[in-house]
Amino acid sequence: MEKPEIAKLGYVALVSSDLQKSLTFFRDVIGLEETAEIDGVHYLRAWGDFQHHTLSVEQGESGYVKHIGWRTKKREDVEGFRALLEEQGVDVRTVPAWETPGIGEAVRFSLPSGHTFELYYDIEKPEVEEHRRSVLKNQTYKAWAKGISPRRFDHVNLHTSQQAPETFEFLQNVLGFKMRELLENDNQDILAGWMSVTQLVHDVAFVVRPETDTPARVHHISYWSDDSQDILRAADILKEHGFDFVGPGKHSISQAMYIYVTDPGSGCRVELFTGGYLIFEPDWEPVRWHESERAFGNTYWGDSINAKELVKTTIEAR
Amino acid sequence: MEKPEIAKLGYVALVSSDLQKSLTFFRDVIGLEETAEIDGVHYLRAWGDFQHHTLSVEQGESGYVKHIGWRTKKREDVEGFRALLEEQGVDVRTVPAWETPGIGEAVRFSLPSGHTFELYYDIEKPEVEEHRRSVLKNQTYKAWAKGISPRRFDHVNLHTSQQAPETFEFLQNVLGFKMRELLENDNQDILAGWMSVTQLVHDVAFVVRPETDTPARVHHISYWSDDSQDILRAADILKEHGFDFVGPGKHSISQAMYIYVTDPGSGCRVELFTGGYLIFEPDWEPVRWHESERAFGNTYWGDSINAKELVKTTIEAR
Amino acid sequence: MEKPEIAKLGYVALVSSDLQKSLTFFRDVIGLEETAEIDGVHYLRAWGDFQHHTLSVEQGESGYVKHIGWRTKKREDVEGFRALLEEQGVDVRTVPAWETPGIGEAVRFSLPSGHTFELYYDIEKPEVEEHRRSVLKNQTYKAWAKGISPRRFDHVNLHTSQQAPETFEFLQNVLGFKMRELLENDNQDILAGWMSVTQLVHDVAFVVRPETDTPARVHHISYWSDDSQDILRAADILKEHGFDFVGPGKHSISQAMYIYVTDPGSGCRVELFTGGYLIFEPDWEPVRWHESERAFGNTYWGDSINAKELVKTTIEAR
Amino acid sequence: MEKPEIAKLGYVALVSSDLQKSLTFFRDVIGLEETAEIDGVHYLRAWGDFQHHTLSVEQGESGYVKHIGWRTKKREDVEGFRALLEEQGVDVRTVPAWETPGIGEAVRFSLPSGHTFELYYDIEKPEVEEHRRSVLKNQTYKAWAKGISPRRFDHVNLHTSQQAPETFEFLQNVLGFKMRELLENDNQDILAGWMSVTQLVHDVAFVVRPETDTPARVHHISYWSDDSQDILRAADILKEHGFDFVGPGKHSISQAMYIYVTDPGSGCRVELFTGGYLIFEPDWEPVRWHESERAFGNTYWGDSINAKELVKTTIEAR
């Protein structure tokens, strides 16, 4: 059988300890659109996201990420991954089609790090009501309707304190992620890896953080805007809404410009992101950064806070 | 045997009737870097292009495009494509490794439209001298060294007056391009197609123009900049250098912002380009525009000249 | 007595034949804030305008501009101008303080061209409600709350078919405007003049248009944004709201970037504007453009329509 | 006699302990144009500066600012200021016309703080050679020719450890600067003041720093760019040239966006600057910030270093 493949990052299922605050943050300040609210779960996406949702938010006792969904390249890849995972001794749970609104049959499992990933192929592309629909037929919603108004969901950044080498191995060899840039020490242990199945530098970054409270953490989720000035405008908007943030700055790794701001409901950090480069070369060799270059790798220029501080404020992934 | 695949657009081999003018235009005004000059051929690329060259320019009796190079996903894909093409009755010429500086063994052939494509896998990544090398290890040259300074090569736009349906068929079924957006008439004849092997909306656009002088024409080649304002800055730079141009404007098809300016040496039009969207969905359905929507499809807003005018100023492809 | 002086452009009193359309346009699309609605007149300003209003809109039988208000440098300048104007044989009408909400005692009179100007000194700076107030104490409202969201009112552009030389003379010698750039013919007749009392290139432009329907016309009013990309974002917003417009482009005269869009309620054209230069030199010599340079003077680059077309769509000033 | 008035900030006369480094910095990295080199002094300006020079640089034993030149509104204001200053008991030295190339007769004197100011009216506007001249007749040089390429000189920021109240008094009452924003303590002592004779928020900022090494210091000089993204592009250019810097960030006071970078030859800090607001209101009340708001006043968002650090690296003014 052909090796199953992941096409793209799909969505993050977020739990908030203060749903109203999270909704105000994501809908009014970040400016995401709401596809649907079903059984108290709000399904959100950016104006340029093509599918049902890229973020769901619901009320819970604490803020954490339930799972991270990824879309496969073909329908049969969902089954293919189940077989492959079980072959590897991974417990796989089937999620019946449409149990998650908008999402077809899926498989759900834990990484060695403890993060829950979900793989699915089928997803709905609901029609948009006319007053919110873009006049462009290749765009979902009207751009710039409210708040910061990023174009699309971009990537997730995950922290782990356990089974790091196994996780990097698993992501590359089982799930098919390609290592694009990495941070390593003199023993060539990977301390952080930026990996993708797409031509982005990363759909997911994994950072080894032995000191975290629980083994599987989420450092941030990221939405992409088209222009650098959009990030500066985001800074103004955040300040006018009373939010503090880290940035603006530019990463050396990925070359992307950023602001980090935290959803006050869930504690989930959101990176507002632009720029960077695309990788079209089929023989791309990972760009290797030594741990002595960590500060420069993280921050080419601009505002950046103490990494320890940023670590302390990750949220749990289950 | 596995189906061979193209990874990306590689380079355009351009002939100029006034090499000095072309070099001034591409190196000083557009701001490309020169990798090498060998036997009177100048090999150029943008600061963010990772490989040997994305454009070659040489002196000739008239301005035209010799061929367009594409990199395959694997080394064996070059051989794979040769077999596939010969199976289709296409004449294939082998280009020995390094006959084109920087480029390994390649196959060259004509599309039904008459355009010459080349496929290769091996390509050199020459070391950059320190004073031109970026301080970022994931970037080739220092950014913003001179002129407009785009990041990377993006796409080509080709015109044809012959065998249009066969060409669209060939590009999709033999070469593996995916149709992303298209313009069609009531008979569902494709009048123009935007196709890619990457996650860009197009690596190549093909436009049917029965009225052109020779069957295979090049409408433009395109370099990509990161930000919208870079295109406005390009406008200022072009005017200060005495160039007229079309734009700035924004396409509905691809959602990208543009300026079109013509190399006075070769007559080859260059599109300065930013924005647009990426396609990660594996089941992308081509966005279909009816010929009655042609003007809106081409121009969402901004400056745009008469399409006839733009057609008359294409250059020949051999 | 010291020569009275004008400090700045104040506001435009606009009448709309469809007030609801005008309010939607100015408040939701352009993104102006409403200071107050009094007796059916809506008083609007941008988030960075410091005073009561820079635009008023009210219902009428047709769209036209009632008058254009200017603030004097000192309170006694209002009286000083009355004396000066009466000395010149100009009819002056006194407007009692607060007859126009927010505006103190004023004098109102006609230019030789027929446009009505008003001069006042006192103006209210009403407190802004906390939820709309900027967190910056040097800024009036929160930026980017809705729509295009320009920073401040910038200038007016007026057309006249009568008494043009007298009007230029009057503006400079009586009202104290300095000529900054001008368009002239071989006889050194001024065909258009860009004049200011501030360090902007123009607070008012006067264009001679013998062919207009009524002698006093308003070509456009203009709001200023900080960045070039704001004008591109405005283009997207206008298209998503179904508006056509002229631009984006850049003027040679003033060096400013623009979009022109028309309020569908009043027919009044609004220029969205950024860039340009400031004049600090006390001995500035007007930049002189010959009528043969008119097209280049108007459009350095970008989209621009036939001047005749733009003339036909001016609105009346009374 | 009418009160003499200053029209605008003119130029800074800078001494460098490493002239070659300073010239590389100002000409190649910042991208200023050189008007002339006379007797080892280099006269520089930005592409949008209209007059002879806005910066002079020459070799000396250490880096310091010799004096800061200001242009008066009228020729007779130079004499008027001399009389006014002598009336105040200030020592005034006459600088013969053209002793400073490009600058007519001037008076030079010390502020209570010890900084040397010069006042002049006449200044040359030398013709620009065709290959460097802008195609726009209202602009001096071609824009974007090299380096960061700011538009124009903007302001100076000065520190003083002596006679602070007398200096604020002198600047306002003798020289005619208007206080636009200020930082004060509970006793209403001014700790920092942003003052202008133009419609900018400040042509000069004065900051009280009792702890500095010598009483009169220069914190930075500032050049202005049109767009926010220009500051981000400057960040990239500086990094590619091996420069560290503070920023990008946005001030609350003045609302302007900034980067601070230091000339390695003279030690003089340069602020790359954009945005901010203009003051047209004749009755502007200074915006008052309490010393408890100092950090927020300095930094609305973005990168900012410890103020102490920035103070230590000021250069001397003589």
Topology, element by element:
The structure is a homotetramer of 318-residue chains.
Chain A: E1 6-16, H1 19-29, E2 33-38, E3 41-45, E4 55-59, E5 64-72, H2 76-87, E6 93-95, E7 106-110, E8 116-120, E9 152-160, H3 164-174, E10 178-184, E11 190-196, E12 204-208, E13 216-224, H4 228-240, E14 246-250, E15 256-262, E16 269-275, E17 287-290, H5 294-298, E18 301-302, H6 307-312, E19 315-317
Parallel strand pairs in A: 1-4, 5-8, 5-19, 9-12, 10-17, 13-16
Antiparallel strand pairs in A: 1-5, 2-3, 3-4, 6-7, 7-8, 9-13, 10-11, 11-12, 13-19, 14-15, 14-18, 15-16
Task: Characterise this structure.
The structure is a homotetramer of 318-residue chains. With 318 residues, the first copy, chain A, is α/β, with parallel strands linked by helices. Chain A has two domains: 6-120, 2,3-Dihydroxybiphenyl 1,2-Dioxygenase, domain 1, CATH 3.10.180.10; 152-317, 2,3-Dihydroxybiphenyl 1,2-Dioxygenase, domain 1. In chain A, 18% of the residues lie in helices and 36% in strands. Chain A has helices at residues 19-29, 76-87, 164-174, 228-240, 294-298, 307-312; strands at residues 6-16, 33-38, 41-45, 55-59, 64-72, 93-95, 106-110, 116-120, 152-160, 178-184, 190-196, 204-208, 216-224, 246-250, 256-262, 269-275, 287-290, 301-302, 315-317. Chain A has a 19-stranded mixed beta sheet that branches. In chain A, strand 15 (256-262) and strand 16 (269-275) form a beta hairpin. The longest helix of chain A is centred in the C-terminal third of the chain and has 13 residues, at 228-240. At the A-B interface, strand 1 of A face loops of B. Chains A, B, C, D: Residues 8-122, 152-275 form the VOC domain. Chains A, B, C, D: Keywords: Aromatic hydrocarbons catabolism, Dioxygenase, Metal-binding, Oxidoreductase, Repeat. Chains A, B, C, D: This is Manganese-dependent 2,3-dihydroxybiphenyl 1,2-dioxygenase. Chains A, B, C, D: Homotetramer. Chains A, B, C, D: Its EC number is 1.13.11.39.
